[in-house]
Design goal:
Number of strands: 11
Distance between the termini: 55 Å
Helix content: 40-55%
Shape: globular
Order of helices and strands: EHEEEHEEEHHHHEEEEHHHHH
Length: about 375
């Protein structure tokens, strides 16, 4: 579907627009067409303020007596139609097989994805059921009154375990990319400045280690690749978690999502000055999350032993993501104390995100100032 001037095929290479430009085109042209495509006439459609690093324009769609919906408009040209369809087919498969995820809704034409070309830009459109409840941050990180927070840790693991168990039987029609499609030595070399030569070396070493790991059906499959409390909502009446934002999903090791679960657990204890207490908490936290996880699927001890390795892989992903963002905005990496912290962990092989290391400061968590 097109609006405004028709686009020439060569222009589908895309002139990159920024978020604000995408919002402007969406509000003035795209939403009207989307309403027609997805039966959204009569809905109150409101923009959700973007989070840092967000790559989509997202709206809530509300109408009294109807299910609340989430509309996602993707505008960056680094993914194609196949990528989006592969993501949405995976979400639909998870939902149909009992995973607690936000279901994707078909358009009037019966499509999971619609494409609109407007002002010489391509917009990929999809619609989801809005997850019940709200995010932890919207509840000031307060859990359910009178219920121990350990219930939440267990549920986080359980919901993830269920998704991984379903993934073990997933045979895609359209394939999402493989972890190594995104992370190659050449890509690292082009993205990271020469002044970070040790960082490059350590990243390449890490990728070589990963290449030697098993990729059988029990260890490797479709993963969320961004599993954290910004990407699920909690029904505070029941504690039930509903997961969304699968736009980073890819084929990878299930241990990666578990390492993500570990790294996001540090927020519960990051201001504790005693490293021993932080360590004891994290051991208990992860044991509880793992109990939830293994209630739904199994994981070999040989993979669990690789938790420190996969925590380093989450750092690699985070560092590369930040360098990509800096390339877009023209910022200098030397000015970012959080990025420098991650780089130091990577360069000096400091395990567990430096959380139990002397470099860690409970007053300024996960920051490092280069002297």
């Amino acid at each position: 579907m097109q609006c405004g001037k028709p686009s020439h095929q060569c222009l589908l290479e895309e002139i990159i627009i920024n978020f604000n430009e995408a919002v402007n085109i969406s509000n003035t042209h795209v939403l009207e067409l989307v309403s027609e495509l997805f039966h959204l006439e009569g809905y109150n459609i409101q923009l959700i303020p973007p989070h840092e690093g967000g790559r989509n324009v997202v709206y809530t769609c509300e109408q009294e007596g109807r299910e609340s919906l989430i509309l996602r408009i993707s505008f960056l040209p680094d993914r194609n139609r196949e990528d989006y369809i592969a993501e949405l087919e995976y979400v639909r498969y998870l939902y149909e097989h009992g995973a607690s995820v936000s279901n994707v809704i078909c358009s009037k034409k019966g499509h999971l994805l619609e494409e609109i070309i407007c002002d010489e830009h391509t917009f990929f459109i999809c619609l989801f059921v809005k997850a019940k409840g709200k995010m932890l941050v919207e509840n000031n990180y307060q859990y359910r009154e009178g219920i121990p927070i350990t219930e939440h840790y267990y549920n986080c693991g359980k919901v993830l375990g269920k998704m991984h168990q379903i993934s073990k039987g997933y045979i895609p029609v359209h394939r999402r990319h493989h972890f190594f499609d995104n992370y190659k030595g050449e890509y690292i070399d082009n993205l990271i400045p020469e002044s970070f030569s040790l960082l490059k070396e350590k990243m390449v070493e890490l990728l070589i280690t990963l290449e030697g790991l098993d990729t059988n059906q029990e260890t490797f499959g479709m993963i969320h690749f961004d599993y954290n409390d910004g990407n699920y909502s909690i029904d505070f009446d029941t504690g039930q978690i509903t997961v969304y934002d699968f736009d980073n999903s890819c084929f990878g090791w299930y241990m990666y999502d578990l390492a993500d679960l570990w790294t996001h657990g540090v927020g519960w204890i990051q201001f504790e000055p005693d490293a021993g207490k932080r360590k004891a908490f994290m051991d208990d936290y992860f044991e509880t999350a793992l109990a939830g996880y293994t209630s739904e699927t199994k994981i070999e001890d040989s993979m669990l032993e690789k938790l420190p390795l996969f925590i380093q892989v989450t750092l690699l992903e985070n560092i590369l993501g930040q360098f990509e963002e800096m390339q877009r905005t023209g910022e200098e990496p030397e000015a970012d104390e959080e990025l420098l912290y991650l780089i130091k962990c990577m360069e000096e092989d400091i395990p567990y995100k430096g959380f139990f290391h002397d470099m860690y400061s409970s007053e300024e968590p996960f920051t490092y100032e280069e002297h």
